[in-house]
Design goal:
three-stranded antiparallel beta sheet, 191 residues, 13 strands, six-stranded antiparallel beta sheet, globular, mainly beta, Jelly Rolls
Length: 191
């Protein structure tokens, strides 16, 4: 394991930006192809304005056992059809846990195990969501403002986005009568 020096990170509590971050990941609607059930609406939205769905601010930590990685995510408000803006979602390559701590806004942490069992954690300022090992996860912004959270996980956890891209999540969150509702994903492919 590399011996690194302690790091001081400054998080702007109003915006969620880590001011000394090493990497910013930006996901636009065009990066989210295959994630939303309403593919035709997604296609039209990309052509109209390829909006930013979310940004992740990462601090570079060695990806090795014993290290703890962390980042902030700013998930913007919006919908594709009736489905809320969301992160791509992933499983870890190793059986590890992760925490999400909501700094501002509101939304949900949507988790799923390999058998397709879905669990929701409602998130708002001050809520910490715990993701046990073996659970895939994504977040959804169901509010009118930015949903901002801090994530912390073992630095050697790895991220498997491909399984979500290929199979989808068993559940999707849609707006129904002005409220978020969990529904079965018609495009989910069981193992």
């Amino acid at each position: 394991m590399d011996l690194i020096k302690p790091i001081r990170s400054l998080i702007d509590m109003d915006t969620g930006v880590i001011e000394n971050c090493d990497n910013i990941i930006e996901r636009r609607l065009s990066d989210m192809r295959g994630m939303y059930a309403d593919r035709e609406t997604l296609r039209r939205l990309i052509l109209q304005e390829d909006q930013v769905v979310y940004r992740v601010y990462e601090v570079k930590i060695p990806e090795e056992e014993g290290q703890l990685a962390y980042s902030t995510t700013i998930l913007y408000p919006g919908k594709v059809g009736r489905e809320y803006f969301m992160t791509k979602g992933h499983f870890h390559l190793r059986e590890t846990a992760e925490i999400y701590f909501c700094l501002s806004g509101q939304g949900y942490l949507l988790t799923q195990n390999n058998q397709g069992e879905v669990h929701l954690v409602q998130m708002n300022s001050g809520v910490l969501g715990y993701i046990p090992p073996g659970w895939g996860h994504r977040t959804l912004n169901t509010g009118p403002e930015e949903f901002v959270f801090l994530a912390a996980y073992p630095a050697d956890a790895g991220h498997n986005y491909r399984v979500i891209e290929e199979k989808g999540f068993a559940g999707i969150m849609v707006e129904e009568k002005g409220h978020p509702q969990l529904k079965s994903n018609p495009g989910y492919k069981k193992s």
